[in-house]
Amino acid sequence: MSNPVEHVRRWHAELTAIRRDIHMHPELAFQERRTADLVAGHLAQWGVEVHRGLAGTGVVGVIPGREDSRGRGIGLRADLDCLPMHEAAERGHRSRHEGRMHACGHDGHTTMLLGAARYLAQTRQFDGTAYVIFQPAEEHGGGGNVMVREGLFERFPADEVYALHNWPELPPGRIALRAGPVMAATDEIAITIHGSGGHAAMPHLAVDPVVVAAQVIGALQTVASRNVAPVDAVVVSICSMHTSQTGAFNVIPDAVHLLGTVRSFRAETRDMAERRCREIAEGVAAALGGRAEVKYTRGYPATVNSPRETEFAARVGESLFGAGNVVRDVDPTMGGEDFAYFLQEKPGAYVFLGQGGGPLGCSLHNPHYDFNDEVIPLGAGYLAALAEQAMPLADGHGSAMAA
How far apart (Å, rounded) are the C-alpha atoms in residues 371 and 108? Predict the structure, then answer.
């Protein structure tokens, strides 16, 4: 059985060109038409059966193995969309569109899955069906949820599902994962504090919503410090604050608007955080003579890896990169991921792929970020190996490491 990583290296230059082309033409959530056309075109060129239309711009490729004795299937997913931000770095393949940028590496994720699809379609050294899933709107809009609701796994019945995300904090050639929650639920909180405006020199004749808002912001931090167990985790961050009027130094406004996010891993903690945020905002405002309106919007659920599939994904990584290059107990992150919706439907794992040491070594969502093209064969080969080792051929060409 050939090494998928070394096999994909033959196409490294071509895949790098594809990745940089996607980077130059970033598209926002549910608008990834050019990217979807590019993906579908390459898949068809390589002999992959292409299906389009889920979540509008989603693309799914179906790759049968040499055999299908057990009717098994595996899903491999990449995200297509970019972020609504300006690219600051000057490079030959920088974004051609102001206010749009691949600052999270989705261009690399898409390219790596294309490389895996090409390898799997060419070799077909597995017993079952590989589904390569190119999903829109990860950054905003929950494209994964839309694909699931529109029948993704009814039409493409994968038994398990996996995804890779590049991780600048890890060096190339290493992967990191953990069973259980690996990324957080991402909720949004919007609070409007109503007071009574007036002259700043006569605050006793007004109800100052700025003072109320300041007390609310401070009190909300007790959700993390006093309402959850120290071994649990929750984050309440108020990230934006503006008043009903600006520009005057001597006017107490009528209202203050707060906007922030609440992150958690456990469903019970999520419920508690929502309840306490409401109680604190409304209670503090009332105690100070104002009134709080709280709008709490639940976003993506926590991304939770299933234990069996996580162990399998780790062993596949060891087979390619060596045991010393697989981190099995990576700390979970409070970032969010709509791959969570896939994992609510199917067992699987979300895996971090090291890409540190790229051109600038920037973190994700940084205006200077760029995907490290040197890891394309590593990620593509790993994704392909997941399919081969999950669905090995009986004649020994596949691996005996199936979960």
Answer: 6
- Hey, what's the torsion of the CAs at 305, 308, 310, 311, to 10 degrees? 160
In the structure, how many helices (H) and strands (E) does the chain have? 12, 16
Average the pLDDT over 314-330 and give the result.
Answer: 97
Rounded Cα gap, residues 43 and 113, in angstroms:
10
C-alpha to C-alpha distance for 30 and 273, rounded to whole angstroms: 31
Residue with tokens 């605050």: 203
Asked whether residue 282 carries a pLDDT value surpassing 80, the answer given is yes
Statement: residue 399 has pLDDT above 60: no
Tell me if 304 sits within 8 A of 180, measured CB to CB: yes
Closest CA relative to residue 100, chosen from 38, 36, 23: 23
77 near 143, Cβ under 8 Å?
no
pLDDT of residue 360: 54
Whether 403 shows a pLDDT value over 90: the answer reads no
Cα distances (angstroms) measured from residue 85 to each of 63, 99, 101, 228, 396: 35, 5, 6, 35, 49
Q: Is residue 112 within a helix (H) or strand (E), and if so which, with residue range?
A: helix 106-123
Which helix (H) or strand (E) element contains residue 4? Answer: helix 4-9
Q: What is the mean pLDDT of residues 55-65?
A: 98
When pLDDT is cut at 50, 70 and 90, the band that residue 7 belongs to is very high
- 247 pLDDT above the threshold of 50: yes
Asked if 303 contacts 107 with a C-beta cutoff of 8 angstroms, the reply is no
* pLDDT in the model for residue 245: 87
Q: Is residue 199 over pLDDT 50?
A: yes
Q: Residues 389-392: contacts with CB within 8 Å, 24+ apart?
A: 389/312, 389/315, 389/316, 389/319, 390/72, 390/74, 390/126, 390/128, 390/160, 390/312, 391/65, 391/70, 391/72, 391/74, 391/126, 391/127, 391/128, 391/130, 392/126, 392/127
Total length of the chain: 403
Active-site residues, by number, are 81, 138
Pairing of strands 129-135, 59-64: antiparallel
The Cα–Cα gap between 239 and 254 comes to 20
